[in-house]
Each structure stands twice: as C-alpha cells, then as structure tokens.
Write the structure tokens for this entry.
Amino acid sequence: GHMGRLTGLFTDSNNNGVFLVLTIITILYRLRVNTNVSNQYKWALHVLMALSSIVLALTFSRTAWMGMFVFLVLYFFHYSFTARLKLLIIGSIMIIVGIYYYNVNSDFSSIIDERLKNISITNIENDSHFSVTLEAINIWFSSIIVFVFGTGINCLSVYYQNYYARAGYKAHSYFLQNFSEFGLLGGMIVIAFLAH
C-alpha cells in the first residue's frame, strides 16, 4: 500500500511537524538544564526524542525539516564539543538509516522524491506553497477586523474557499496560519506562549 504523511492529532502534517520540532527542542532543553535527574528520566527523554524524530521524518513536512535543521545548526554552534560530537554521531546514524530506508522501501522513496522534486529557488513564482502563502497573507490583510482578530479557529480554509474557490487550503506556515486565524492579538499570544 501507499505510505501517507503522518498528521497525528492535527489536521495537517505540517502542523504535526511543527509540534514535533517544538517537542524535540523542549526535550533537548530539558536534557541540558536538568543535569541532576535520574538515568531512567534521561533514558525516557532520549527514547521520546528518538520516536519524535522518526515521526517528524514521516510527516514529510519540508517546513518542519527545515526548521529542525536550522535549530540543530544553532544548537551545534551553541554548545560544548561533547554535545556537538553527540549531535554529529546521532545525526550521522539518522542519515544512514534514512538512506538505507530510502533504498529498500519504494513507498518511502517515492514520497521523498515527490516532496523534494519541486523545490527550486529560481522558479519560486510557480511554487504552489509560495502562492498559498501569499494568498494567506492577502486574506489576513483583507480587512482590519481579520487583521486584528483573525478569521477564527480553523476558518482560514473557509476564506480560501470564498476568495480563491479552493476548499481545504492551509497557509503552509504554522505562524502564518495562527496569525491568520487568531489575528494579530491571538498570534502574539501564541508567540508569547511559545517563547515562554
């Protein structure tokens, strides 16, 4: 059978990807800050991080992958040599496993090929994700009420239907989706919550 993109409890695999990236970042933070915890607690966090990483890969969310990559680069340069070495070893193992799985599972490799084939900086005006992002920005700025208070929870897709005659569309950006649906006020609350 055909392998799909994992959405978890979310309506969209990209939102699941963002949640998983934030989960992994939180786990890494807990492991760095809580040095006086038991080995069982550390082991459980490592297992949870490994499982979250596997599920993150299976969301096939390019946005989440890119976010995780940027975080890992920043993490790599911020911490000690030992932490960098661990990150390199774990990252290398994950890449090797991913390459192996890509070569032995045709469903996995076909999805990876499909997700990566349309990435092009030189052809950005024909990129459907870029178009959807611009349309979400246009909807968010469509009126002062929508800008300040948003379209409503899970209502951006309704606005896509009304403005662009396409059903079920999302912003393809967790933050833009939140700002579009919750408005400037709600979006700032989401940012404050994530920053805290």
